[in-house]
Design a protein that fits this description.
The strands form 3 sheets. This protein has a 7-stranded mixed sheet with strand order 4-10-9-8-7-5-6, sandwiched between helices. Helix 2 runs antiparallel to helix 10 and helix 6 packs parallel to helix 7. By secondary structure, the chain is α/β, with parallel strands linked by helices. The protein is built from 13 helices and 14 strands. The chain binds 4'-deoxy-4'-aminopyridoxal-5'-phosphate. The site of 4'-deoxy-4'-aminopyridoxal-5'-phosphate has 16 residues, from helix 4.
Length: 428
């Protein structure tokens, strides 16, 4: 689209011959915005570099894990030290222990934790624990919330399905689908109706307490409190999926911000410092159901990989300093302020997570708390904005429905430059 992507175009043509859509995760293919995905060779700090030698200020940050930016020297040193000691042990080791202790001493609701390799695995396993604990089979989720690609969660999901032709994945077995109930965000009455009808069958309710996979849709605390109360009173477990919000909005994630204690919680992204990690944890009595302590089987050849554990530990140790979050809040507030009062644009933000909703036909009205509150043309309107930023050396996640992430490596000057470009694009 821009003429700056000759080498990326060549690689994309080759990639499409050997991999579906030319990528290994759908949103990367630029389907939502058109044009050629840039093939990136690496990054440093807030910058990403592509194969054609161009640099971009990155606001995707690998979809969230890189809270200190690309190739952060401290995290790199921790990972390199781990590499030197051997990168896969398949044994008990001290690194995951240190990370587990760091988390459970600070987060009272994480009495026990198990590390896995992705957010998807974390969710899949937490659901299994919930079903075993309650001896019930139904799971309640919310429209627009994404919980990874385990079958039962691929209904009305967000993320790459937000702008897909159909909101549900193909290939799901009908008996799996039957066990998933879907409610709408921001509606106590919908929840009450669902619990009145199915309360005794619901093993768990899973929610992103800060939904961030269909744009950013902050929920009212009262809504989350009602959810927690209904779950408790019907004997269903409450699972907070904090794969994005955990260690990102503050060390304790959205559970800490909202003051609501989940029974189980899932983490990913920041917890591994950018290496492949997920984790699930929560009440000791529930986690003691997991093998080998209990009968719920869950295992992994590469689980608690030492590189990932050491990178995660280096990341989380630094995040125990609240100054990092104060700095991220400062940067976020600056971005939000400089994008206020623009025609066709609304910004929703919590800390270092932001989302720009651009809609030409129908102006977005804030706050947006559910997918149904988004303007109909939000998806289409985003592509020209995305490409004008890309041409100007700014990399956003290539979809209208993905959020943006700031890192501690971003500067005021970079944020001002982003705001200026967006203002230019939105100017009447
Ligand atoms: N839960 C949430 C809230 C997520 O945002 C994601 C991924 N973006 C997942 C689960 C799945 O994590 P992964 O991609 O690591 O499997």
């Amino acid at each position: 689209m821009s003429g700056n992507d000759a080498r990326s175009a060549e690689l994309f043509a080759r990639a499409r011959r050997v991999s579906p859509g030319g990528v290994h995760s759908p949103v990367r293919a630029f389907r939502g915005v058109g044009g050629t995905p840039r093939f990136m060779t690496g990054g440093a700090g807030a910058l990403l570099r592509d194969v054609d030698g161009r640099e971009y200020v990155d606001y995707c940050m690998a979809f969230g894990p890189l809270i200190f930016g690309h190739a952060d020297p401290g995290i790199r040193a921790a990972a390199e030290a781990a590499l030197g000691r051997g990168w896969s042990l398949g044994t008990a080791e001290p690194y995951s222990l240190e990370l587990a202790e760091l988390i459970s001493t600070r987060l009272p609701w994480v009495e026990s934790i198990r590390f896995v390799n992705s957010g998807t695995e974390a969710v899949m396993s937490a659901l299994r624990v919930a079903r075993a604990a309650t001896r019930r089979s139904k799971i309640l989720k919310f429209e627009g919330c994404y919980h990874g690609h385990t079958d039962s969660m691929l209904l009305r999901a967000g993320s790459g399905l937000a702008d897909a032709p159909l909101p549900d994945s193909a290939g799901l077995a009908p008996d799996v689908v039957q066990e998933t109930l879907v409610s709408v965000l921001d509606s106590e009455s919908a929840l009450e109706a669902l619990f009145a009808r199915h309360g005794s069958e619901i093993a768990a309710v899973i929610i992103e307490p800060l939904p961030a996979n269909y744009g950013l849709l902050p929920q009212r605390t009262e809504f989350l409190q009602t959810l927690a109360r209904l779950a408790r009173s019907h004997g269903s477990l409450l699972i907070f999926d904090e794969v994005i919000s955990g260690f990102r909005v503050c060390f304790g994630g959205y559970a800490a911000l909202s003051g609501i204690t989940p029974d189980l919680v899932t983490y990913g992204k920041v917890i591994g410092g950018g290496f492949p990690v997920g984790a699930y944890g929560g009440r000791r009595d529930l986690m003691e159901l997991v093998a080998p302590a209990g009968p719920v089987y869950q295992a992994g050849t590469l689980s608690a990989n030492p590189l990932a554990m050491c990178a995660g530990l280096a990341t989380l140790q630094r995040l125990t300093d609240t100054a990092v979050y104060a700095r991220l809040e400062q940067l976020g507030a600056r971005l939000e302020r400089s994008l206020s009062n623009l025609p066709h644009l609304a910004v929703q933000r919590v800390g270092s997570i932001f989302w720009m909703c651009h809609a030409k036909q129908q102006p977005p009205t804030v706050p947006m708390r559910a997918p149904s509150a988004l303007p109909a043309d939000a998806g289409k309107s985003f592509a020209p904005l995305f490409h004008s930023l890309l041409d100007g050396g700014v990399y956003l996640a290539p979809s209208a429905f993905e959020v943006g992430f700031l890192s501690a490596a971003h500067t005021e000057a970079q944020i001002d430059a982003l705001a200026q470009r967006v203002r230019q694009h939105c100017a009447p």
